[in-house]
Amino acid sequence: MEHSSLFMMIYVFVLAIFVGFELITKVPPTLHTPLMSGSNAISGITIVGALLSAGMEEFHISTILGMIAIIFATINVVGGFLVTDRMLKMFKKRK
Asked: Quick check: pTM over 0.70?
């Protein structure tokens, strides 16, 4: 891999961190639940891709990385649904 492409990938990664942080801190609390649902959908797509990677017939590093991706994406989806459920319960009227 060329040094210039490595530096470009690092540059994009660092830029994504700053942009993501700025976007998340500017979101009003009323939009957190819909955004959490959207991120759960994206993590669901990640799980499908990770399953495809981990289920390869040959054992490569992609199999290990796919399994790690399945674990982390599943934790993200389950945690996201728990947080969304808890936030929605806060807005329900008490009987």
From this structure: no
